[in-house]
Amino acid sequence: MADGLVSVVLEQLSSIFIQEVKREVRLVVGVKSEVKKLTSNFQAIQAVLADAEERQLKDQLVKHWLDQLKDVSYDMDDVLDEWRTAIAKSQSEVNEHPRKNTRKVCSFMIFSCFRFREVGLRRDIALKIKELNERIDGIAIEKNMFDFKSSKVEIKQLEHRKTASVIDVEEVKGREMDKDRVMKMLFSAESSQGPALRTISLVGMGGIGKTTLAQLVYNDHEVATHFEKRIWICVSDPFDETKIAKAILEALKGSASDLIELQTLIENIQSLIRGKKFLLVLDDVWNEDSTKWEQLRNSLKCGCLPGSSILVTTRKRNVANCMGSSPGTDILELGLLSTDECWSLFSQLAFFEKNSKERGDLEDIGRKIAAKCKGLPLAVKSLGSLLRFKSRIEEWESVLNSHVWETEEAESKILAPLWLSYNDLPSDMRPCFSYCAVFPKDFRFERDTLIKLWMAQGFLRETQNKEMEVRGRECFEALAARSFFQDFEKNKDDGSIYACKMHDMVHDLAQNLTKNECFSVDIDGVSESKIDSFSRDARHSMIVFRNFQTDPLPATIHSLKKLRSLIVGGYPSSMNAALPKLIANLSCLRTLRLPGCGIEEVPSNIGKLIHLRHVDLSTNEIRELPEEMCELYNMLTLDVSVCEELERLPDNIGRLVKLRHLSVLNCDFLKMRGVEGLSSLQELDVFHVNGSGEESNIGDLRNLNHLQGSLIIKWLGDVKDPDEVKKAELHNKKHLTQLDLWVDYRTDRRIICDDKVLEALEPPPNIYSLKIYDYQGVIPVFPSCTNKLRVVVLWKWGKIENLPPLGKLPSLEELSIFDMGCVGRVGREFLGLGVDSDISIGEMTSSSSNTIIAFPKLKSLSFWSMEKWEEWEEWEGGNEDKTNISISTIIMPSLRSLEIWGCEKLKALPDYVLQSTTLEQLEIGGSSILEEQYLKEGGEGWPNASHTPVITKYGR
């Protein structure tokens, strides 16, 4: 983590001179030489950091030296950030839209005072730089005492555990099912359709039992008789092809000492495996460069019998891919042991040679200790072995109540293997992992929120070709692929991970790395003493209130003046009284998360938190944000979602030119004036169109072309002007994928919406989901959309009598239609085949020139609350194009699910639905006529519907 901090400081130092030249900013006399000296010291320290980070595991003096370095790096980063912010603000234009003269005068005075103070500010920063230079001087001198090796010199790798194939099968617990799965993979490799040489990978976090499982399989009698040759190689890191080839040859031949060339080794191996079926186990592989493995793998394929296999164990999914394992079929990701399996393994070790009385006295404590291991076999074996020779209850209770790292014997056995995974991380990813220590154990991480927190701390550096968010997603996925995360929650559409957790032991590693920097604490009545035990130099904290506590925020928190992150969770009491003092004391904050804290007013002194980049005030009772928030020039994320009382954003919010994420979800009456200036926005979940006077219009979205993901547009005023809608230039929002339009979502009055407004919308070209709510036009228009639209929801189109021609959407997969109160019939116009439709038969024609397809990819169709709907028209087939050539029609050939609820008057379903061979589920509810026909045997429509696999009454 120190390497990442030093890199940030060096980048900041170099930018001072760039800004001096580009912006003609004068430095105080002497600062230039101080900056050069700082740069030189930091560069010298950076050169030895790789060695220092490795040595801190066993040398507490080195760890203390690194702690000092991180502390001064944090302080230097704050000073340089203050300087950079001052320069940027002094050069920026003041872009104000004052609502009141007093506000205008106030903003003008703030800006003028800044100009007046600029000279003093430069001197203040110069003094801080000089003071920090003295501190770094001492650290640089102390560095020489440790005789660190420079990164330019080859540094000895951390010691990897050496493995062999030998195992005592009787001592293994809980891998029977996994063993059976691996053996089935091995034995199915003889399929004539499969590859000549199959590679199967076991993937999982350090200590989860990959090697143990491979040993179980390797030593199984059935495996031993199935393969003519079995070879076990412990690979570790680095991946040396020649060394591996030599080890394989030694295993096959007994000796290879006289051979040193890779080609000669390969030729010898080929001669020994030709015409034979073999199993090669490569244990503990870290290499992600497929080119290093390719030559050796190709040589193993030559001449071997089909059914030969390679079994790989690795911590990283990327390794499994580059070794040639096919995702889904050849990769087994190992899970944690169950509670019973943990206890079985633990008791086998811990109770060895203990009598029944001793076992009875210790069993309750032992079960709690086993549960503390959270299914990780390495931890179970380490603690079980530790307690094997301890018989007193006090000794067992000490282990149960201690932090696992305080158990000296367990530290070397658990920490060291997990440290290898950390050490394998690129230096710029290490701070991202370590930051997770600020959260409590078993915390549910949301990917996008975690990325925003990393951004706020400066861990993610934006480049010309890659945005911070993209880099953040890559980092998150890399940590997940290296087994740092678990319990994944995945997006059903694209399989991406959006939430996860971290195993307790991995979390302990992160805490060990950040012992004096990060802490989380529960408020439980003794919180003051807990917080008091943490270092006054702590940088990141999370305070969790449990069970609707009435305790106030602990006063001790005000003394942690170097905090960069303050995150409050749980159920705190109101922080109104504490907030002004909190903000005044914690001037280094970059992240301030206070959701659900009963806040009614945000103090104006928040504008002095110049480092602040991430603010979460969601679910509070705020009516208005202070204008001083617009002084937070570095702000990246602002979340005021579910602040239901919030009436307006600050007038000058457009000055937050770096703001990238703005969340205002469920702020239903919020006025959003000034948003047009936020040209860096990537996330804006809801945009309110006020449509009158100086308030927001939809045209204010024109410049927000970096918007990504989902956008909801809600109208608070009448929607009559198509030209204003065109000004939004939604077609230029190429990164938007979901668009929701709420034309009239308020209940107090009906908003007038002209039919031409929807026609003028021009949705973004890459959206796959479009939802339109409360449209009150009389013509069933539908915006012209791209071929990528997969999801459509139409809700409460209160005046239309016919549905729009949705059947012509070529990629539509899910369609839901709700509360169409005036629709009495659904016919050919819905299919896109109506006479008056603008459908081009040529556009819907399949590869066969005389066939058209309506709803070609529709899988799910839902109708809800269609109170006047009586007829769903049959399609009798047949169409003619302009040359009078007969065109046959296919309707909904991919339909899987049909749901109908609250359509009381609907008489029957059309044959093209009932006779569908793809329909798997039919659900009907609140529709008595249909229920009588299709849900009961003997009903008039039952014979036509009975072939559908699932027919249910809705809600049962």
UniProtKB/TrEMBL annotation:
Gene Ontology BP, a term: response to other organism
CDD domains tied to this protein: RX-CC_like
Domain annotation Disease resistance protein winged helix: ranges: 438-510
SUPFAM superfamilies registered for this protein in UniProt: L domain-like, P-loop containing nucleoside triphosphate hydrolases
Protein name per the record: Disease resistance protein RGA3
Species: Populus alba x Populus x berolinensis
UniProt entry keywords in alphabetical sequence: ATP-binding, Leucine-rich repeat, Nucleotide-binding, Plant defense, Repeat
Transmembrane spans: none
Coiled-coil region(s): none
Residue ranges annotated for the R13L1/DRL21-like LRR repeat region domain, each copy included: 698-820
Signal sequence region: none
Top-rank lineage group of the source organism: Eukaryota
Domain Disease resistance N-terminal, residue spans: 6-96
Record InterPro entries: Apaf_helical, Leu-rich_rpt, LRR_dom_sf, LRR_R13L1-DRL21, NB-ARC, P-loop_NTPase, RX-like_CC, Rx_N
GO molecular function, one term: ADP binding
Domain NB-ARC residue range list: 176-353
